[in-house]
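Quick note —
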Amino acid sequence: MLGVLAVGVTLVASTAGIVSATPAPAREQGPTGCGAPAAGQPNGKQWPAEPGMTIDTNAGYTATLATTCGTVTIALDAARAPRTVNSFVFLAGERFFDHTKCHRMTTEGIFVLQCGDPTATGMGGPGYFFPDENLAGATYPAGTVAMANAGPGTNGSQFFIVYRDAPLPPNYTPFGRVTAGMEVLSSIAAAGVQDGSGDGAPAVEVVLDSVAAVRN
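Predicted structure written out below.
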């Protein structure tokens, strides 16, 4: 859910402690650098309301996305986007992201890979929404991780990763930055969009085999 990428939503969108799934073991990769996904399906859990705050907003958190195309590591910004990071850590701990596809690649105008939807349709989420954060002066240089949405206050689980500086308006909560794995994103982007357009499903299947979020 990105307004610009939206879902019916687009760029977008437990009491969990801080742990999550164990990254999947490495597998043999095909010529694109991407391998077959680990066995399993999204659990599709739903919650009626945003989780209560369990993270320490003064601490650092790291998310590790083990994808079929390589591993991406993200430093989460709990100080500037506490509710967003709290939700992400909660969902990771519930293994909500495991086995979900990154359903959207945009290669024209903005440059993002969008993930976090268990339905892979651009319409899915965790059953709750939460408000925007950290928008004052927000910019989206390469490496930014931000929430997709369908308008103000509609953050859920969908997020996007900027692989090249994107001229987006400050409407999408930035909550992290890629610290390792930009080459993985560049490789996915280089393969383009499945239908040859500038916006759609990635040409290579990108699945989040597991997502772990831990306190540093």
